[in-house]
Design brief:
The complex is a heterodimer of chains A (about 325) and B (about 130). By secondary structure, chain A is α+β, with helices and mostly antiparallel strands. Helices cover about 45% and strands about 10% of the residues of chain A. In chain A, helix 10 packs antiparallel against helix 11. Chain B has a domain of about 80 residues. Chain B is built from 6 helices and no strands. The chains are: A alpha+beta (about 325), B mainly alpha (about 130). The interface between A and B is medium-sized, with 22 and 15 residues.
Chain lengths: ~325, ~130
């Protein structure tokens, strides 16, 4: 009787447990340096990620230290405790880890939460910071760990986690705990590198997060990197102009905005920002012309003429020509 | 009246200071300039819209829409007119769907919700459908 019952139970449980499919081939854009045909059905372990065992409740500082160390930054969990550990909550928040990484001039790129993407990043040499829920959804035990490798034959994910170095977790356990934490995963990149699975707008969003937290050098570098990898993205050029503008380097800002309007004449924001930079440079006429181009492209947003400072005109002011509207 | 004016001047001065402080603190790019994030948000909306349009190209979706008596062109036109909020809510429904669940079902359900509420004239998002009333 008992045997029958346990058999039934085993069958039922087996029915519930889904077998995660191990992806075979890496994902990613062809224009990112990782080769499209990189195989994931093999084993990979990143050696450049040092291990820090966590102290009680302090997986956040330990994981962050490992991520920073892997980028050649000499920080240990004790240094970082002040930045990212909340004694009252006995833990760290994701946003704090992200903010702390940004304050070290790293670009924090969120992954899309699939196993394929995770493994592709690891195969490309990028350790991945993940969040897991080690207990149940209604009684959570949050945990941070760093994925440093995988083994397709054994179906294992290799993590630096709690006090275990290069712990080999089955993909079933990993997927269950990871998905209970919303499949949260990020890579932390030096601003002159692009994650293997990066998508242009998402990467630029991450770069603009650096800009809006006033990490201007890092953000500028990231925009330049993006401009090289994805020449068709206007925001990469706009960002460089906006940083120059924030630094009140009007000439540099004008140069970037002009580059933007040359290459992307349909982007009204470029003309609008150019107008403001030119006004600061003392090019009143050019500024008004550029503002008129912006208004012509997008009357709702830029229709009202901005109050541009009319400084004395100088001879080096550019001649502005609006794009000819394309016939529909 | 004079006293009120004098008062207003102080309040305006204070408000101007406050707003200047808030602006400087919140936005790295000065007022009037379009921030990088703003342009990116617009681009993201267009990407979402394109993703939705791409889904219409799937045969199962086409078949389902034909069953419902709606032409693909009509739906495409509607998608062009969806607001960023509506697009975002759709994206979220897709994201929350369990892995492996029938994506077609969600797409059609989404469109259905808008079409039916429109037929009842609860919204006027789908203007191509004539109201029941």
């Amino acid at each position: 009787m008992l045997r029958t019952a346990s058999l039934v139970l085993a069958v039922l449980l087996a029915g519930c447990a889904t077998q995660p499919q191990w992806p075979a081939v890496a994902v990613g854009d062809a224009n990112v340096r990782l080769d499209r045909s990189v195989r994931l059905d093999r084993s990979v372990q990143l050696d450049q990620v040092p291990f820090h065992p966590q102290e009680r409740y302090q997986c956040g500082p330990a994981s962050l230290a490992m991520m920073l160390n892997s980028r050649g930054m000499n920080r240990n969990p004790d240094d970082l405790k002040e930045l990212v550990y909340l004694p009252g909550r006995q833990g760290s928040l994701q946003v704090e880890l992200v903010a702390a990484a940004r304050s070290h001039d790293l670009l924090v790129y969120p992954l899309d939460g699939t196993l394929e993407t995770l493994l592709t990043e690891v195969a490309a040499g990028n350790p991945v910071l993940v969040m897991q829920n080690l207990r149940l959804s209604w009684w959570p035990q949050w945990h941070f760990a760093v994925v440093i490798g995988f083994d397709a034959d054994d179906r294992r994910i290799i993590l630096h986690t709690d006090t275990r170095e290069a712990h080999r977790e089955t993909v079933e356990v990993f997927m269950a705990t990871w998905s209970r934490a919303g499949n949260w995963a990020v890579v932390m990149m030096p601003p002159d590198e692009v994650p293997a699975t990066a998508k242009p707008v998402d990467y630029l969003m991450a770069a603009s997060d650096l800009e809006s937290t006033n990490r201007f050098d890092a953000a500028n570098q990231a925009y330049q990197t993006a401009e090289q990898v994805w020449p068709d993205q206007p925001a990469a050029v706009l960002g460089q102009g906006n940083i120059a503008y924030s630094r009140q380097d009007w000439a540099a800002a004008s140069r970037h905005y002009q580059r933007l309007t040359d290459r992307f004449p349909d982007v009204a924001a470029g003309w609008n920002n150019l107008a403001h930079a030119l006004a600061h440079q003392g090019c009143g006429v050019s500024a008004r012309d550029a503002a008129a181009c912006a208004a012509q492209l997008n009357p709702d947003r830029f229709g009202s003429t901005p109050d541009l400072a009319a400084a004395p005109a100088s001879e080096s002011c550019p001649v502005i020509r609006c794009p000819v509207p394309a016939a529909d | 009246m004079q006293g009120f004016r004098k008062h207003m001047r102080y309040i305006s001065f204070f408000m101007a200071l406050l707003m200047a402080a808030v602006t400087v603190g919140a936005a790295p790019a000065a007022a009037g300039v379009v921030g990088t994030g703003e342009l990116l948000t617009e681009q993201r909306v267009e990407l979402d819209r394109q993703a939705l349009l791409d889904m219409l190209e799937r045969e199962e979706v086409k078949a389902k829409l034909a069953d419902m008596g709606v032409t693909q062109e009509q739906v495409e036109q509607r998608i062009q007119n969806l607001t960023p909020t509506e697009l975002a809510s759709f994206e979220q429904q897709l994201a929350e769907a369990p892995v492996g669940e029938d994506v077609v079902g969600i797409i059609v359900l989404f469109l259905l919700v808008f079409i039916i509420t429109d037929m009842l004239c609860a919204t006027n998002i789908f203007s191509f459908i004539n109201c029941i009333r």
